[in-house]
């Protein structure tokens, strides 16, 4: 038996994570994830106790405790553009990128450092799409990129002098991987050296960049127009 009250307090452990709200819990139930406990507020646990354990006022009707899946292999991420995130810090941005990837036909998300996809905020922002999209934490991101380069055209988002507007990207004959940099400083030179093309979204009115989650949706949509 798991100590589910302790897991609620921790929010995420090495083996478990929690899901908040009826719709996300229903989407979890319709996935292949293993669920250890579903908690109905007002039946299994009072709203007051749930709020105490979670550390904030909890007003949703359901909680679930699920087991983290095994890290998926790269071979599961073949149908669509693979989104690569070397170091996304904000779990809300990460969850939104997962949602955008699922909505726009992406193959999956490959993570380096940074936020956990099993963070409660990331799960909420993903709108449950985490449960139906392969998300891999790379043991060694550069090694994974080297493997990806054998089968994919790698596109890095960058504001460097070598970057071209996304609209000027030539037609791409291969599968694609889209690299999105950290919120504050973007892709580093080592990561950029693995890219076949560096691309950016043209801006107006003096704006130099978009939120990385917003930019991910534009890039994913535009890339579909440049595939052979």
Chain-wise SSE layout:
Layout: H1 4-10, E1 16-20, H2 22-29, E2 35-40, H3 47-54, E3 62-67, E4 82-88, H4 91-103, E5 108-114, H5 120-126, E6 135-137, H6 141-148, E7 152-157, E8 164-165, E9 175-179, H7 189-192, E10 197-200, H8 212-224
Parallel strand pairs: 4-5, 4-9, 5-6, 7-9, 7-10, 8-10
Antiparallel strand pairs: 1-3, 2-3
Helix pairs in contact: 1-3, 4-5, 4-8
Main beta-sheet strand count, sense and barrel state: 7 strands, parallel
Order of helices and strands: HEHEHEEHEHEHEEEHEH
Strand order of the biggest β-sheet: 6-5-4-9-7-10-8
Name given to the CATH homologous superfamily of the largest domain:
SPOUT methyltransferase, trefoil knot domain
Count of β-strands: 10
**Count of DSSP H/I helices:** 8
Low-confidence stretches: none
Question: CATH topology of the largest domain, anyone?
Answer: Alpha/beta knot
How does CATH name the architecture of the largest domain? 3-Layer(aba) Sandwich
Mean pLDDT: 91
The fraction of residues assigned to DSSP E strands is 15-25%
Question: Which structural class best describes the helix and strand composition?
Answer: alpha/beta
CATH class of the largest domain: Alpha Beta
Helix content: 25-40%
Radius of gyration computed on alpha carbons: 19 Å
């Amino acid at each position: 038996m798991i100590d589910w009250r302790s897991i609620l307090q921790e929010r995420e452990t090495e083996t478990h994570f929690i899901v908040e709200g009826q719709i996300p819990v229903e989407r979890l139930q319709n996935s292949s994830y293993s669920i250890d406990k579903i908690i109905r507020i007002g039946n299994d646990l009072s709203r007051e106790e749930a709020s105490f354990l979670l550390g904030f006022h909890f007003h949703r009707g359901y909680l679930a405790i699920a087991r983290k899946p095994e890290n998926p292999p790269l071979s599961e991420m073949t149908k669509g553009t693979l989104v690569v995130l070397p170091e996304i810090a904000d779990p809300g941005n990460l969850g939104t990128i997962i949602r955008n990837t699922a909505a726009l036909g992406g193959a999956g998300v490959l993570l380096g450092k940074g936020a956990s996809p099993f963070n409660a905020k990331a799960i909420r922002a993903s709108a449950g799409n985490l449960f139906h999209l392969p998300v891999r934490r790379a043991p060694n991101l550069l090694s994974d990129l080297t493997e990806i380069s054998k089968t994919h055209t790698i596109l890095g988002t960058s504001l460097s002098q070598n970057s071209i507007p996304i609209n000027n990207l030539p037609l791409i004959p291969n599968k694609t991987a889209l690299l999105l940099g950290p919120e504050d400083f973007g892709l580093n030179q080592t990561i950029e050296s693995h890219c076949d093309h560096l691309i950016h979204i043209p801006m107006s009115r003096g704006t130099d960049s978009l939120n990385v989650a917003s930019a991910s949706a534009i890039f994913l949509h535009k890339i579909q127009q440049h595939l052979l």
